[in-house]
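Example 3.2
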Amino acid sequence: MKLLSRHHGPHNRDLKDLHRLEESVKAAFMGPRNITLPTHANAPAVIWLVGLTCLAEVVLTLAEAGGLGGLGLRRWLVLHGAFWNGLLAGWEALYPFQRELMFVTYALLHGGLLHLIGNMVAALALGGIVVARIGQKGFLFLYLISAIGGAAGFALLSSSESPMVGASGAVFGLIGAWKFWEWQMRRHLGSPMKPLLQFILGLVVLNVVLWLALSGLLAWEAHLGGFIAGVVFAAIVTPNIRYRV
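Structure, written as tokens:
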């Protein structure tokens, strides 16, 4: 046994050295693991959209804090602006075209300051990446399409009769476009796809955790609908890595 060990020891070391050499060669021809897309910070379209989205919740919060009938105003806005599955199932609309407009107006309302801040921080961070790739008009159109996609996802996958509010469907659309562009870049550079898959898995886990923590009140259906809308939009508008809007 000792002779055998002495005989195979150098051979095993040679194999290890060869393996290290192969890994080094692979790394030399493989693109970078971390992909950073260009961004356009503080684009006016992003700032104005975030400001418009903040308006309703800021007014409601101030009215509630000052005892100025904020709860009644919030109830009125939710009744008229939230997404209601019941309106697609025969409920009577409160005003003309409410069934159609709610696919967008729900994204201008939130359930509180924390809900608003979380979505708007993400919109500011991702908006610059989107503007850098498809411009400010492209950003606004993607945001709109993603909001509609989020509402459609909620309508198709949820049977809840509770109102749905929040810009997270639109934000997940921005994430979907961002990750599609990262996939394009990774494929172009020959970079590993594992970090991208890990991010998406982490996104799924985060939704599950939040859904459990919020006792099922998380509209994951809107997140999924918005994400898919963002991916499809990016695939159509920017079919290859060189294409810009």
